[in-house]
């Protein structure tokens, strides 16, 4: 009958018809740029990208500059989370109800990325993209031609985890400490790999993985192939690989023999200090901890 809109399931797993009394959906749209909240009616089958265009037409001050840099965001009680609506999907896909509130906000935000040489670069990324696409943007910005071999690490989380573990070993854990430990273990299981590094999942966004906007992420090489595939004409990649491999040797991730350690230490000294100069290179100018793996630092023979 007229006034009733019968449609097939909106998402996989729903059986039968979905019955609506109206083909329109009224949503409260929070314009983050100016703080206004507008109630706007959309058709259920309106694409998210079309909804954004409607919002810009109804509220001229909703965005500034390129409209494609803005999108619809479904907030969550946890400020670290929430969901960006895919501009290619219809509003009905998200099972929105009349009166639900969405945010119209800018998707582009700065991300601070730490390199293995301790330098920090700020890159503008699309917060709605998954980590795989964000890595491509970072690598393009700094001149790396093979982004598929790199990944992002939650470096500070590793340090916090070690500190919490040390505290729990010294003291009897309180209820709060135990909760923190379980939370950390849950996240570790999600991100853990054999080398005990907390890699981010490439198929999820930063928000979906609970990464806050002020988090500094470490760019590391994750996949290694044969030397044939290493571009010796790419100084950026060569430098990152050199620093990462040296770090992995020093901290014991890459196990080597004593003879190999001595040989690599000699190469490192040559690279860093050049040929021996008696006027500059006095006894004690070398730091063993920067040259040898921990298991060989006390070897005297």
Overall pLDDT score: 78
Integer-rounded radius of gyration = 26 Å
Poorly predicted parts: 1-10, 14-19, 157-173, 187-194
Number of helical segments with 4 or more residues = 6
For this structure, the quaternary state is: single chain
Series of secondary-structure elements, N-terminal to C-terminal: EEEEHEEEEEHEHHEHH
Strand residue content? 15-25%
Largest sheet: 5 strands, mixed
Please tell me what the overall shape is.
elongated
Number of strands: 11
Q: Tell me the strand order in the biggest sheet.
A: 4-3-7-5-6
- Helical proportion? 25-40%
Structural class: alpha+beta
**Could you tell me how far the N terminus lies from the C terminus, measured between alpha carbons in angstroms?**
94 Å
Notes on the protein architecture:
With about 300 residues, the protein is of the alpha+beta class. The chain is about 30% helix and about 20% strand. The protein is built from six helices and eleven strands. It has helices at about 50-60, 130-140, 155-170, 175-190, 235-250, 260-275; strands at about 5, 20, 25-30, 35-45, 70-75, 85, 100-105, 110-115, 120-125, 150-155, 215-220. Strands 4-3-7-5-6 form a five-stranded mixed beta sheet, covered by helices on one side. A four-stranded mixed beta sheet has the order 9-8-11-10, sandwiched between helices. Strands 1-2 form a two-stranded antiparallel sheet. Helix 3 (about 155-170) runs antiparallel to helix 4 (about 175-190). The longest helix has 17 residues, at about 175-190. The radius of gyration is 26 Å and the shape is elongated. The relative contact order is 0.09. Mean pLDDT is about 80; it is low at about 1-10, about 15-20, about 155-175 and about 185-195.
């Amino acid at each position: 009958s007229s006034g009733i809109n019968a449609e097939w399931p909106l998402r996989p797993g729903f059986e039968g018809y979905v019955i609506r009394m109206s083909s329109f959906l009224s949503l409260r749209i929070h314009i983050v740029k100016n703080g206004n909240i507008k109630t706007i009616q959309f058709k259920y089958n309106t694409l998210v990208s079309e909804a954004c265009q409607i919002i810009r037409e109804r509220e001229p001050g909703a965005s500034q500059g390129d409209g494609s840099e803005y999108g619809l965001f479904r907030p969550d009680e946890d400020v670290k989370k929430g969901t960006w609506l895919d501009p290619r999907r219809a509003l009905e896909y998200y099972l929105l109800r009349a009166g639900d509130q969405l945010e119209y906000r800018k998707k582009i935000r700065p991300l601070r990325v730490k390199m293995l040489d301790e330098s920090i670069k700020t890159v503008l990324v699309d917060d709605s993209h998954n980590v795989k696409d964000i890595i491509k943007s970072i690598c393009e910005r700094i001149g790396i031609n093979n982004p598929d071999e790199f990944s992002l690490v939650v470096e500070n989380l590793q340090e916090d985890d070690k500190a919490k573990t040390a505290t729990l070993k010294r003291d009897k854990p309180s209820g709060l400490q135990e909760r923190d430990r379980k939370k950390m273990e849950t996240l570790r299981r999600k991100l853990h790999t054999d080398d005990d590094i907390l890699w981010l999942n490439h198929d999820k966004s930063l928000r979906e993985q609970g990464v806050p906007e002020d988090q500094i992420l470490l760019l590391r090489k994750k996949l290694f192939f044969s030397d044939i595939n290493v571009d010796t004409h790419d100084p950026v990649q060569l430098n990152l690989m050199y620093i990462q491999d040296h770090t992995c040797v020093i901290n014991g991730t890459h196990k080597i023999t004593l003879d190999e350690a001595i040989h690599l230490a000699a190469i490192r000294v040559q690279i860093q200090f050049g040929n021996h100069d008696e006027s500059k290179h006095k006894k004690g100018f070398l730091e063993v901890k920067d040259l040898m793996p921990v298991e060989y630092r006390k070897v005297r023979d």
